[in-house]
Amino acid sequence: MSPAFPSGQEVPAGGPLADGQFGDASNPFGVYVHVPFCRVRCGYCDFNTYTATELGGGASQRDYATVAALEVQLAGQAMRAAGYPGRQVSTVFFGGGTPTLLPASDLVAMLDAIRQQWGIAPGAEVTTEANPDSVDLRYLQELAAGGFTRVSFGMQSAVPHVLATLERTHAPERIGPCVSWARQAGLDVSLDLIYGTPGESLADWRASVRAAIEAGPDHISAYALTVEPGTKLAAQVRRGAVGMPSADDQADKYELADDMLTAAGYCWYEISNWARTDDAADHRCLHNMAYWRGHDWWGVGPGAHSYLGGLSRGDDQDRRGLRWWNVKHPRAYAARVTAGLSPAAGLEWLDPAARELESMMLGIRLRAGMPVQDLPPSARAEIPALIAEGLIDGHAAIAGFLVLTRRGRLLADGVVTRLTRD
Protein backbone atom coordinates (compact mmCIF):
# COMPACT_ATOMS: atom_id res chain seq x y z
CA MET A 1 0.00 0.00 0.00
CA SER A 2 2.93 2.33 -0.57
CA PRO A 3 2.11 5.79 -1.92
CA ALA A 4 4.53 5.17 -4.79
CA PHE A 5 2.05 3.32 -7.00
CA PRO A 6 3.10 2.16 -10.49
CA SER A 7 1.65 4.14 -13.38
CA GLY A 8 0.69 1.08 -15.43
CA GLN A 9 -1.59 0.98 -18.44
CA GLU A 10 -4.93 2.69 -18.79
CA VAL A 11 -7.88 0.67 -17.52
CA PRO A 12 -10.49 -0.13 -20.20
CA ALA A 13 -13.84 1.61 -19.87
CA GLY A 14 -15.42 -1.68 -18.86
CA GLY A 15 -12.95 -2.28 -16.03
CA PRO A 16 -9.70 -4.25 -15.75
CA LEU A 17 -11.22 -7.53 -16.98
CA ALA A 18 -12.76 -6.08 -20.15
CA ASP A 19 -9.85 -7.09 -22.41
CA GLY A 20 -9.06 -10.43 -20.81
CA GLN A 21 -10.17 -13.93 -21.69
CA PHE A 22 -10.03 -16.47 -18.92
CA GLY A 23 -8.27 -19.74 -19.36
CA ASP A 24 -7.51 -22.22 -16.59
CA ALA A 25 -8.81 -20.83 -13.33
CA SER A 26 -7.71 -23.68 -11.08
CA ASN A 27 -5.55 -21.36 -8.97
CA PRO A 28 -6.90 -20.84 -5.42
CA PHE A 29 -8.67 -17.51 -4.96
CA GLY A 30 -8.42 -15.07 -2.03
CA VAL A 31 -9.72 -11.63 -1.15
CA TYR A 32 -7.86 -8.77 0.49
CA VAL A 33 -9.89 -5.94 2.07
CA HIS A 34 -8.04 -2.70 2.76
CA VAL A 35 -9.44 -0.60 5.59
CA PRO A 36 -7.55 2.71 5.39
CA PHE A 37 -8.36 4.20 8.79
CA CYS A 38 -5.97 4.75 11.71
CA ARG A 39 -6.46 6.54 15.00
CA VAL A 40 -2.89 7.91 14.76
CA ARG A 41 -0.53 7.79 11.81
CA CYS A 42 2.69 6.08 12.94
CA GLY A 43 5.84 7.91 11.91
CA TYR A 44 7.40 4.90 10.16
CA CYS A 45 4.33 3.88 8.14
CA ASP A 46 3.92 4.63 4.43
CA PHE A 47 0.77 2.55 3.91
CA ASN A 48 -2.31 4.09 2.33
CA THR A 49 -3.91 5.17 5.61
CA TYR A 50 -5.78 8.21 6.94
CA THR A 51 -6.91 9.54 10.29
CA ALA A 52 -10.51 10.60 10.80
CA THR A 53 -9.62 14.29 10.58
CA GLU A 54 -8.21 13.78 7.07
CA LEU A 55 -11.39 12.34 5.60
CA GLY A 56 -15.04 13.10 5.03
CA GLY A 57 -17.38 13.76 2.17
CA GLY A 58 -18.19 10.19 1.17
CA ALA A 59 -15.12 8.59 2.72
CA SER A 60 -16.20 8.30 6.34
CA GLN A 61 -15.62 5.30 8.56
CA ARG A 62 -19.38 5.10 9.08
CA ASP A 63 -20.06 4.46 5.37
CA TYR A 64 -17.02 2.39 4.55
CA ALA A 65 -18.49 -1.10 4.93
CA THR A 66 -21.35 -0.22 2.58
CA VAL A 67 -18.97 1.14 -0.07
CA ALA A 68 -16.60 -1.85 0.17
CA ALA A 69 -19.55 -4.25 -0.10
CA LEU A 70 -20.57 -2.42 -3.29
CA GLU A 71 -17.11 -3.01 -4.75
CA VAL A 72 -17.40 -6.71 -3.92
CA GLN A 73 -20.70 -6.77 -5.79
CA LEU A 74 -19.14 -5.00 -8.79
CA ALA A 75 -16.21 -7.43 -8.70
CA GLY A 76 -18.51 -10.44 -8.77
CA GLN A 77 -20.45 -9.00 -11.69
CA ALA A 78 -17.26 -8.20 -13.63
CA MET A 79 -15.86 -11.69 -13.13
CA ARG A 80 -19.07 -13.35 -14.27
CA ALA A 81 -19.29 -11.07 -17.31
CA ALA A 82 -15.74 -12.03 -18.25
CA GLY A 83 -16.60 -15.72 -18.05
CA TYR A 84 -14.55 -16.24 -14.95
CA PRO A 85 -15.16 -19.78 -13.64
CA GLY A 86 -16.69 -19.73 -10.20
CA ARG A 87 -14.40 -20.49 -7.27
CA GLN A 88 -15.00 -20.20 -3.57
CA VAL A 89 -12.73 -17.96 -1.55
CA SER A 90 -10.03 -19.86 0.33
CA THR A 91 -8.53 -16.93 2.29
CA VAL A 92 -9.70 -13.45 3.30
CA PHE A 93 -7.47 -10.85 4.90
CA PHE A 94 -8.58 -7.50 6.33
CA GLY A 95 -5.58 -5.17 6.53
CA GLY A 96 -4.91 -1.50 6.84
CA GLY A 97 -4.78 0.81 8.54
CA THR A 98 -6.59 -0.57 11.53
CA PRO A 99 -9.63 -2.60 10.43
CA THR A 100 -10.77 -2.94 14.03
CA LEU A 101 -11.41 0.81 14.29
CA LEU A 102 -14.66 -0.10 12.55
CA PRO A 103 -17.42 -1.85 14.50
CA ALA A 104 -17.14 -5.63 14.40
CA SER A 105 -20.50 -5.70 12.68
CA ASP A 106 -18.99 -3.73 9.76
CA LEU A 107 -16.19 -6.25 9.28
CA VAL A 108 -18.72 -9.08 9.40
CA ALA A 109 -20.93 -7.25 6.87
CA MET A 110 -18.00 -6.98 4.43
CA LEU A 111 -17.22 -10.66 4.94
CA ASP A 112 -20.89 -11.48 4.31
CA ALA A 113 -20.71 -9.56 1.02
CA ILE A 114 -17.74 -11.73 -0.01
CA ARG A 115 -19.63 -14.85 1.03
CA GLN A 116 -22.68 -13.84 -1.02
CA GLN A 117 -20.64 -13.14 -4.16
CA TRP A 118 -18.25 -16.08 -4.22
CA GLY A 119 -18.88 -18.32 -1.26
CA ILE A 120 -16.36 -19.14 1.46
CA ALA A 121 -14.64 -22.51 1.11
CA PRO A 122 -14.88 -24.97 4.01
CA GLY A 123 -11.93 -24.45 6.34
CA ALA A 124 -11.10 -21.06 4.83
CA GLU A 125 -8.78 -18.74 6.76
CA VAL A 126 -10.33 -15.34 7.55
CA THR A 127 -7.95 -12.87 9.24
CA THR A 128 -8.12 -9.31 10.45
CA GLU A 129 -5.27 -7.13 11.60
CA ALA A 130 -5.88 -5.32 14.88
CA ASN A 131 -4.18 -2.90 17.20
CA PRO A 132 -4.06 -4.20 20.78
CA ASP A 133 -5.99 -1.17 22.08
CA SER A 134 -8.79 -1.47 19.48
CA VAL A 135 -10.48 -4.69 20.64
CA ASP A 136 -11.90 -6.41 23.70
CA LEU A 137 -13.35 -9.87 24.36
CA ARG A 138 -16.83 -8.99 23.13
CA TYR A 139 -15.49 -7.51 19.90
CA LEU A 140 -13.41 -10.62 19.14
CA GLN A 141 -16.34 -12.92 19.98
CA GLU A 142 -18.48 -11.02 17.48
CA LEU A 143 -15.84 -11.48 14.80
CA ALA A 144 -15.59 -15.21 15.49
CA ALA A 145 -19.37 -15.60 15.39
CA GLY A 146 -19.37 -13.81 12.02
CA GLY A 147 -16.88 -16.19 10.42
CA PHE A 148 -13.43 -14.84 11.28
CA THR A 149 -10.87 -17.48 12.22
CA ARG A 150 -7.71 -15.49 12.94
CA VAL A 151 -6.48 -12.16 14.31
CA SER A 152 -3.08 -10.56 13.81
CA PHE A 153 -2.09 -8.03 16.48
CA GLY A 154 0.40 -5.26 15.77
CA MET A 155 2.52 -5.75 18.89
CA GLN A 156 5.74 -4.34 17.35
CA SER A 157 7.63 -4.19 20.70
CA ALA A 158 7.28 -4.85 24.42
CA VAL A 159 9.56 -1.92 25.38
CA PRO A 160 7.87 1.42 26.13
CA HIS A 161 10.56 3.68 24.66
CA VAL A 162 10.58 1.65 21.42
CA LEU A 163 6.79 1.87 21.15
CA ALA A 164 7.06 5.61 21.75
CA THR A 165 9.58 6.01 18.93
CA LEU A 166 7.26 4.05 16.64
CA GLU A 167 4.33 6.17 17.88
CA ARG A 168 2.30 3.13 18.82
CA THR A 169 -0.62 3.87 21.11
CA HIS A 170 -0.96 0.65 23.12
CA ALA A 171 0.75 -0.26 26.38
CA PRO A 172 2.99 -3.36 26.41
CA GLU A 173 0.88 -5.04 29.08
CA ARG A 174 -2.11 -5.02 26.72
CA ILE A 175 -0.72 -7.92 24.65
CA GLY A 176 -1.37 -10.72 27.15
CA PRO A 177 -5.07 -9.95 27.63
CA CYS A 178 -5.57 -9.55 23.85
CA VAL A 179 -4.14 -13.00 23.15
CA SER A 180 -6.24 -14.46 25.98
CA TRP A 181 -9.43 -12.83 24.64
CA ALA A 182 -8.74 -14.13 21.14
CA ARG A 183 -8.22 -17.62 22.55
CA GLN A 184 -11.53 -17.41 24.43
CA ALA A 185 -13.23 -16.37 21.20
CA GLY A 186 -11.76 -19.38 19.40
CA LEU A 187 -9.46 -17.40 17.09
CA ASP A 188 -5.94 -18.25 15.99
CA VAL A 189 -3.51 -15.50 17.02
CA SER A 190 -0.52 -13.89 15.35
CA LEU A 191 1.76 -11.19 16.76
CA ASP A 192 3.75 -8.81 14.56
CA LEU A 193 7.12 -7.50 15.76
CA ILE A 194 9.47 -4.87 14.31
CA TYR A 195 13.21 -4.85 14.94
CA GLY A 196 15.76 -2.15 14.21
CA THR A 197 13.88 0.84 15.65
CA PRO A 198 16.24 3.77 16.41
CA GLY A 199 17.38 3.45 20.02
CA GLU A 200 16.44 -0.22 20.35
CA SER A 201 19.21 -2.26 21.99
CA LEU A 202 19.76 -5.97 21.58
CA ALA A 203 18.46 -6.40 25.14
CA ASP A 204 15.31 -4.47 24.20
CA TRP A 205 14.74 -6.75 21.25
CA ARG A 206 15.34 -9.86 23.36
CA ALA A 207 12.70 -8.62 25.82
CA SER A 208 10.20 -8.10 23.01
CA VAL A 209 10.70 -11.55 21.52
CA ARG A 210 10.49 -13.11 24.97
CA ALA A 211 7.23 -11.25 25.71
CA ALA A 212 5.75 -12.38 22.40
CA ILE A 213 6.63 -16.01 23.11
CA GLU A 214 5.28 -15.82 26.66
CA ALA A 215 1.94 -14.53 25.34
CA GLY A 216 1.59 -17.87 23.54
CA PRO A 217 0.41 -16.96 20.01
CA ASP A 218 0.18 -19.46 17.18
CA HIS A 219 2.27 -17.35 14.84
CA ILE A 220 4.89 -14.59 15.09
CA SER A 221 6.17 -12.27 12.37
CA ALA A 222 9.35 -10.23 12.75
CA TYR A 223 10.12 -7.50 10.23
CA ALA A 224 13.15 -5.25 9.95
CA LEU A 225 12.19 -1.59 10.15
CA THR A 226 12.52 0.11 6.79
CA VAL A 227 12.78 3.88 6.57
CA GLU A 228 10.39 4.72 3.75
CA PRO A 229 10.78 8.00 1.82
CA GLY A 230 8.20 10.61 2.72
CA THR A 231 7.51 9.33 6.23
CA LYS A 232 7.98 11.26 9.44
CA LEU A 233 10.72 8.82 10.47
CA ALA A 234 12.60 9.47 7.21
CA ALA A 235 12.53 13.20 7.96
CA GLN A 236 13.86 12.57 11.48
CA VAL A 237 16.71 10.46 10.11
CA ARG A 238 17.52 13.10 7.49
CA ARG A 239 17.71 15.79 10.18
CA GLY A 240 19.91 13.62 12.35
CA ALA A 241 17.29 13.54 15.12
CA VAL A 242 17.45 9.73 15.20
CA GLY A 243 20.02 7.29 13.88
CA MET A 244 19.39 4.01 12.13
CA PRO A 245 20.98 0.75 13.25
CA SER A 246 23.61 -0.89 11.09
CA ALA A 247 23.00 -3.89 8.87
CA ASP A 248 25.03 -5.94 11.35
CA ASP A 249 22.72 -4.85 14.18
CA GLN A 250 19.66 -5.94 12.23
CA ALA A 251 21.30 -9.25 11.32
CA ASP A 252 22.10 -9.89 14.99
CA LYS A 253 18.48 -9.21 15.93
CA TYR A 254 17.16 -11.51 13.21
CA GLU A 255 19.41 -14.33 14.34
CA LEU A 256 18.43 -13.78 17.97
CA ALA A 257 14.74 -13.96 17.07
CA ASP A 258 15.27 -17.11 15.00
CA ASP A 259 17.14 -18.79 17.87
CA MET A 260 14.56 -17.85 20.50
CA LEU A 261 11.54 -18.74 18.37
CA THR A 262 13.01 -22.06 17.27
CA ALA A 263 13.80 -22.97 20.89
CA ALA A 264 10.20 -22.10 21.83
CA GLY A 265 8.72 -24.47 19.23
CA TYR A 266 8.12 -22.08 16.36
CA CYS A 267 9.37 -22.99 12.90
CA TRP A 268 10.27 -20.48 10.20
CA TYR A 269 8.33 -21.04 6.99
CA GLU A 270 9.04 -17.69 5.30
CA ILE A 271 11.96 -15.36 5.91
CA SER A 272 10.04 -13.11 8.34
CA ASN A 273 7.45 -15.57 9.67
CA TRP A 274 7.38 -18.39 12.21
CA ALA A 275 4.48 -20.70 13.08
CA ARG A 276 3.88 -22.91 16.11
CA THR A 277 4.63 -26.58 15.48
CA ASP A 278 3.38 -28.31 18.62
CA ASP A 279 0.28 -29.90 17.07
CA ALA A 280 -1.07 -31.04 13.74
CA ALA A 281 -2.76 -27.73 12.90
CA ASP A 282 -1.31 -25.46 10.23
CA HIS A 283 -0.70 -22.08 11.86
CA ARG A 284 1.00 -20.45 8.88
CA CYS A 285 -0.69 -17.38 7.43
CA LEU A 286 -2.35 -19.05 4.46
CA HIS A 287 -3.32 -15.75 2.88
CA ASN A 288 0.28 -14.58 2.74
CA MET A 289 1.29 -18.03 1.48
CA ALA A 290 -1.12 -17.44 -1.39
CA TYR A 291 0.79 -14.28 -2.36
CA TRP A 292 4.15 -16.05 -2.21
CA ARG A 293 2.84 -18.96 -4.28
CA GLY A 294 1.29 -16.81 -6.97
CA HIS A 295 -2.36 -17.54 -6.23
CA ASP A 296 -5.15 -15.23 -7.42
CA TRP A 297 -6.73 -12.52 -5.30
CA TRP A 298 -9.08 -9.59 -5.57
CA GLY A 299 -8.15 -6.47 -3.59
CA VAL A 300 -11.03 -4.43 -2.21
CA GLY A 301 -10.64 -0.83 -1.02
CA PRO A 302 -8.67 2.31 -1.90
CA GLY A 303 -5.20 1.51 -3.18
CA ALA A 304 -5.79 -2.25 -3.02
CA HIS A 305 -3.98 -4.41 -5.59
CA SER A 306 -5.44 -7.46 -7.36
CA TYR A 307 -3.94 -10.28 -9.39
CA LEU A 308 -5.44 -12.94 -11.65
CA GLY A 309 -3.36 -15.46 -13.63
CA GLY A 310 -4.26 -17.77 -16.49
CA LEU A 311 -5.55 -15.01 -18.77
CA SER A 312 -5.05 -14.24 -22.43
CA ARG A 313 -5.19 -10.74 -23.81
CA GLY A 314 -7.19 -10.31 -27.01
CA ASP A 315 -5.78 -12.69 -29.64
CA ASP A 316 -2.63 -13.40 -27.61
CA GLN A 317 -2.69 -17.09 -26.73
CA ASP A 318 0.10 -16.86 -24.14
CA ARG A 319 -1.35 -17.15 -20.69
CA ARG A 320 -0.50 -14.03 -18.74
CA GLY A 321 -1.03 -12.55 -15.32
CA LEU A 322 -3.13 -9.42 -14.90
CA ARG A 323 -2.42 -7.05 -12.03
CA TRP A 324 -4.33 -3.86 -11.27
CA TRP A 325 -4.71 -1.38 -8.45
CA ASN A 326 -7.48 0.87 -7.22
CA VAL A 327 -7.45 4.63 -6.93
CA LYS A 328 -5.58 5.60 -3.81
CA HIS A 329 -7.70 8.18 -1.99
CA PRO A 330 -10.80 6.94 -0.14
CA ARG A 331 -12.89 9.85 -1.41
CA ALA A 332 -12.12 9.11 -5.08
CA TYR A 333 -12.62 5.40 -4.41
CA ALA A 334 -16.03 5.93 -2.82
CA ALA A 335 -17.14 8.23 -5.65
CA ARG A 336 -16.33 5.66 -8.32
CA VAL A 337 -17.84 2.69 -6.53
CA THR A 338 -21.09 4.43 -5.58
CA ALA A 339 -21.44 5.50 -9.23
CA GLY A 340 -21.22 1.85 -10.26
CA LEU A 341 -17.77 2.26 -11.84
CA SER A 342 -14.64 0.17 -11.42
CA PRO A 343 -12.29 1.85 -8.94
CA ALA A 344 -9.25 0.53 -10.84
CA ALA A 345 -6.66 3.23 -11.60
CA GLY A 346 -4.10 1.26 -13.63
CA LEU A 347 -3.13 -2.23 -14.71
CA GLU A 348 -0.26 -4.26 -16.09
CA TRP A 349 -0.07 -7.53 -17.96
CA LEU A 350 2.70 -9.91 -16.89
CA ASP A 351 4.10 -12.02 -19.70
CA PRO A 352 5.33 -15.57 -18.98
CA ALA A 353 8.91 -14.38 -18.41
CA ALA A 354 7.80 -11.77 -15.86
CA ARG A 355 5.62 -14.31 -14.08
CA GLU A 356 8.56 -16.72 -13.91
CA LEU A 357 10.77 -14.02 -12.42
CA GLU A 358 8.18 -13.09 -9.77
CA SER A 359 7.66 -16.74 -8.93
CA MET A 360 11.37 -17.10 -8.25
CA MET A 361 11.61 -13.89 -6.19
CA LEU A 362 8.71 -14.94 -3.97
CA GLY A 363 9.20 -18.69 -3.88
CA ILE A 364 12.78 -18.48 -2.67
CA ARG A 365 11.56 -16.80 0.53
CA LEU A 366 9.80 -20.00 1.63
CA ARG A 367 11.29 -22.77 3.76
CA ALA A 368 9.88 -25.28 1.29
CA GLY A 369 12.07 -23.65 -1.34
CA MET A 370 11.45 -23.99 -5.04
CA PRO A 371 12.18 -26.83 -7.46
CA VAL A 372 15.57 -26.50 -9.12
CA GLN A 373 14.02 -27.77 -12.34
CA ASP A 374 11.82 -24.67 -12.46
CA LEU A 375 14.85 -22.37 -12.63
CA PRO A 376 16.26 -21.14 -15.93
CA PRO A 377 19.70 -22.53 -16.92
CA SER A 378 21.46 -19.29 -15.94
CA ALA A 379 20.07 -19.57 -12.39
CA ARG A 380 20.95 -23.26 -12.06
CA ALA A 381 24.53 -22.41 -13.00
CA GLU A 382 24.79 -20.20 -9.89
CA ILE A 383 23.83 -22.94 -7.43
CA PRO A 384 27.30 -24.47 -6.81
CA ALA A 385 28.77 -21.08 -5.91
CA LEU A 386 25.81 -20.21 -3.68
CA ILE A 387 26.25 -23.52 -1.85
CA ALA A 388 29.98 -22.88 -1.42
CA GLU A 389 29.23 -19.44 0.05
CA GLY A 390 26.80 -20.93 2.57
CA LEU A 391 23.74 -19.22 1.09
CA ILE A 392 21.92 -22.28 -0.28
CA ASP A 393 21.35 -25.60 1.50
CA GLY A 394 23.48 -28.16 -0.35
CA HIS A 395 21.51 -31.24 0.78
CA ALA A 396 18.24 -29.64 -0.35
CA ALA A 397 19.80 -28.72 -3.71
CA ILE A 398 20.87 -32.32 -4.25
CA ALA A 399 17.28 -33.33 -3.50
CA GLY A 400 16.12 -30.90 -6.18
CA PHE A 401 15.05 -27.85 -4.16
CA LEU A 402 16.52 -24.40 -3.74
CA VAL A 403 16.36 -23.59 -0.01
CA LEU A 404 18.06 -20.67 1.75
CA THR A 405 20.32 -21.23 4.73
CA ARG A 406 19.96 -18.78 7.60
CA ARG A 407 22.83 -16.77 6.15
CA GLY A 408 21.00 -16.91 2.85
CA ARG A 409 17.87 -15.55 4.49
CA LEU A 410 19.85 -12.56 5.70
CA LEU A 411 21.17 -11.97 2.20
CA ALA A 412 18.08 -13.05 0.26
CA ASP A 413 17.99 -9.99 -1.99
CA GLY A 414 21.54 -10.66 -3.09
CA VAL A 415 20.75 -14.31 -3.77
CA VAL A 416 17.80 -13.30 -5.96
CA THR A 417 20.03 -10.87 -7.84
CA ARG A 418 22.51 -13.66 -8.53
CA LEU A 419 19.78 -16.00 -9.74
CA THR A 420 18.06 -13.50 -11.99
CA ARG A 421 20.96 -11.80 -13.70
CA ASP A 422 21.62 -12.68 -17.32
TrEMBL record:
<keyword id="KW-0411">Iron-sulfur</keyword>
<comment type="function">
    <text>Probably acts as a heme chaperone, transferring heme to an unknown acceptor. Binds one molecule of heme per monomer, possibly covalently. Binds 1 [4Fe-4S] cluster. The cluster is coordinated with 3 cysteines and an exchangeable S-adenosyl-L-methionine.</text>
</comment>
<keyword id="KW-0349">Heme</keyword>
<dbReference type="Pfam" id="PF04055">
    <property type="entry name" value="Radical_SAM"/>
</dbReference>
<keyword id="KW-0963">Cytoplasm</keyword>
<feature type="domain" description="Radical SAM core">
    <location>
        <begin position="23"/>
        <end position="270"/>
    </location>
</feature>
<dbReference type="InterPro" id="IPR034505">
    <property type="entry name" value="Coproporphyrinogen-III_oxidase"/>
</dbReference>
<comment type="similarity">
    <text>Belongs to the anaerobic coproporphyrinogen-III oxidase family. HemW subfamily.</text>
</comment>
<dbReference type="InterPro" id="IPR007197">
    <property type="entry name" value="rSAM"/>
</dbReference>
<keyword id="KW-0479">Metal-binding</keyword>
<dbReference type="GO" id="GO:0005737">
    <property type="term" value="C:cytoplasm"/>
</dbReference>
<dbReference type="InterPro" id="IPR013785">
    <property type="entry name" value="Aldolase_TIM"/>
</dbReference>
<dbReference type="GO" id="GO:0006779">
    <property type="term" value="P:porphyrin-containing compound biosynthetic process"/>
</dbReference>
<dbReference type="GO" id="GO:0004109">
    <property type="term" value="F:coproporphyrinogen oxidase activity"/>
</dbReference>
<dbReference type="GO" id="GO:0051539">
    <property type="term" value="F:4 iron, 4 sulfur cluster binding"/>
</dbReference>
<keyword id="KW-0408">Iron</keyword>
<keyword id="KW-0004">4Fe-4S</keyword>
<keyword id="KW-0949">S-adenosyl-L-methionine</keyword>
<protein>
    <recommendedName>
        <fullName>Heme chaperone HemW</fullName>
    </recommendedName>
</protein>
<dbReference type="InterPro" id="IPR004559">
    <property type="entry name" value="HemW-like"/>
</dbReference>
<keyword id="KW-0143">Chaperone</keyword>
<dbReference type="InterPro" id="IPR058240">
    <property type="entry name" value="rSAM_sf"/>
</dbReference>
<dbReference type="InterPro" id="IPR006638">
    <property type="entry name" value="Elp3/MiaA/NifB-like_rSAM"/>
</dbReference>
<dbReference type="GO" id="GO:0046872">
    <property type="term" value="F:metal ion binding"/>
</dbReference>
